[in-house]
Amino acid sequence: MPATCPVPTSPGRSENRGLAWLIGGFIFCPCHLPLTLAFTATVFSGTTVGALLTGYPYIAGALITSVWLAATWRGLHHLRSTARRSTS
């Protein structure tokens, strides 16, 4: 049984959702990693999260890169499903 959303969405809404995922993923793009790590460590300075970010930058970088990959994949998935619905 395919995993589908029980509430059908319009192609326009699905396309907007895909673009929102891609724009959100752009914030976590690995090419912005030094800026993302510095900003996140500054925001969370004085907390456990800030200490973990500054203490383990490679693990934090891997997690941020994973978030970017997941957001990009999800955005492309929404855009492709919109294209499939519009061609059918």
What does this entry look like structurally?
By secondary structure, the chain is mostly helical. The chain is built from four helices and no strands. The chain is elongated. The two termini are 21 Å apart. The mean pLDDT is 83.
Query: What is the ordering of alpha helices and beta strands?
Result: HHHH
Low-confidence stretches: none
Question: Which percent band covers the strand fraction?
Answer: under 5%
Work out the helicity level.
over 70%
What's the helix count?
A: 4
Major sheet attributes:
none
C-alpha end-to-end distance = 21 Å
Shape: elongated
Gyration radius, to the nearest Å? 17 Å
Q: Care to count the β-strands?
A: 0
**Structural class per helix/strand content?**
mainly alpha
Oligomer: single chain
| Average pLDDT figure | 83
